[in-house]
């Protein structure tokens, strides 16, 4: 698995953000012109680690090849001797976890909520401004909109300063209200996609999945508000036993009532957090019961709405739907299995989450020859 946290030594008391830069020997002389005050340039590499020097002082990176972290933006915690790779410059999968608090308790939550919260927005803002050209940065939680004042201001400032960046924000959609309209209008809405879960048209099923009474009603009200604001919405439906049969009904509802959405994503489950705890009762074998998925996708796409399959191993999807199943599992948590050896689709397939159980649950899975 790609490490998101690395070991560092830095002579500082407080956390700080730094971008690591390596220069070819012949470019070293011009490097001062190219360095940002948050940059640290590679000086030398030895058995004791990689030494960088920047305006903030020296820093030593341990246990990882400098070529793998060139351009990365780190949040260094000098007291712990660690750094979080907030932006990995070579990856399209960079996400800021803004909080672990949440007001829902979803049955399959991969990141179960915690009460504790540390405000890292100032670090995230610095990091975003140092991101590579054209990056899309993910925002997730917990529920990021619990801190909507800071979040909306952060998005507005970063998007104003960097015309090339865009954001994908995962939110439960419970916390938009008319008082937020002004702040949302100030954001360039063309560069923010809101990923919002909707599990069922049946309020009893949706509310039970998210562990919150009245959640569906509130969500639909807020989706209407986002439609009026012209926000870009990606609806996300994790496929599980409790909502699988109702998927075609949900598809009809999306096609008739929510046609303004940008995308509908039907997603396979992740076996971690509450998802692992409830796996036996929730996991739906879509390789066996693809019919409800296929009908739902056809219905929505037939009305001109984009619909996709996220986190589905390609061999579990009938051939005619495989082009709708991109490799969505982030690079740092993606894994393949023994069965994948020699599979001709491996290059395009997103495989499995690293923590997917050995008894994978799919009746139909295996290398495509
Ligand atoms: S065998 Fe592995 S690589 Fe091939 S389609 Fe299935 S999951 Fe993907």
TrEMBL record:
Keywords: Iron, Iron-sulfur, Metal-binding, S-adenosyl-L-methionine. One of its GO terms (molecular function) is metal ion binding. Its cofactor is [4Fe-4S] cluster. CDD domains: Radical_SAM. InterPro entries: Aldolase_TIM, Radical_SAM_PqqE_MftC-like, rSAM, rSAM_paired_HxsC, rSAM_sf. Residues 98-253 form the Radical SAM core domain. Pfam families: Radical_SAM. This is His-Xaa-Ser system radical SAM maturase HxsC. The lineage of its organism: Bacteria, Pseudomonadati, Pseudomonadota, Alphaproteobacteria, Hyphomicrobiales.
């Amino acid at each position: 698995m790609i490490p998101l946290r690395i070991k560092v030594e830095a002579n500082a008391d407080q956390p700080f953000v730094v971008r690591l830069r390596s220069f070819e020997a012949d470019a070293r002389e011009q490097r001062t012109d190219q360095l940002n005050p948050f940059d640290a340039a590679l000086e030398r590499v030895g058995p004791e680690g990689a030494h960088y020097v920047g305006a903030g002082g020296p820093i030593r990176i341990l246990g990882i090849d400098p070529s793998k972290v060139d351009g990365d933006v780190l949040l260094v915690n000098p007291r712990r001797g660690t750094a979080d790779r907030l932006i990995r410059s070579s990856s399209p999968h960079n996400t800021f976890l803004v909080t672990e608090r949440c007001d829902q308790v979803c049955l399959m939550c991969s990141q179960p909520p915690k009460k504790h919260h540390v405000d890292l927005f100032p670090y995230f803002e610095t990091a975003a401004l140092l991101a590579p050209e054209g990056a899309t940065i993910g925002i997730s939680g917990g529920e990021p909109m619990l801190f909507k004042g800071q979040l909306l201001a952060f998005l507005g400032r970063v998007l104003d300063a960097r015309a090339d960046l865009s954001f994908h924000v995962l939110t439960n959609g419970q916390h938009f209200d008319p008082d937020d309209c002004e702040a949302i209008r100030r954001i360039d809405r063309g560069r923010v996609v809101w990923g919002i879960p909707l599990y069922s048209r049946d309020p009893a099923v949706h509310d039970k999945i998210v562990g919150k009474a009245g959640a569906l009603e509130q969500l639909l009200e807020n989706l209407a508000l986002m439609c009026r604001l012209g926000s870009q919405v990606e609806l996300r439906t994790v496929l599980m036993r409790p909502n699988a049969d109702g998927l075609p009904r949900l598809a009809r509802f999306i096609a008739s009532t929510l046609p303004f959405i940008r995308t509908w994503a039907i997603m396979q489950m992740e076996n971690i957090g509450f998802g692992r705890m409830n796996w036996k009762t929730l996991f739906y074998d879509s390789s066996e019961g693809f019919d409800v998925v296929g009908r739902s996708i056809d219905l929505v796409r037939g009305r001109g709405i984009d619909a996709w399959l996220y986190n589905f191993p390609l061999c579990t999807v009938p051939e005619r739907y495989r082009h709708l199943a991109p490799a969505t599992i982030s690079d740092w948590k993606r894994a393949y299995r023994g069965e994948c050896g020699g599979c001709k689709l491996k290059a395009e397939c997103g495989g499995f989450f690293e923590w997917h159980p050995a008894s994978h649950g799919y009746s139909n899975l295996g290398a495509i020859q």
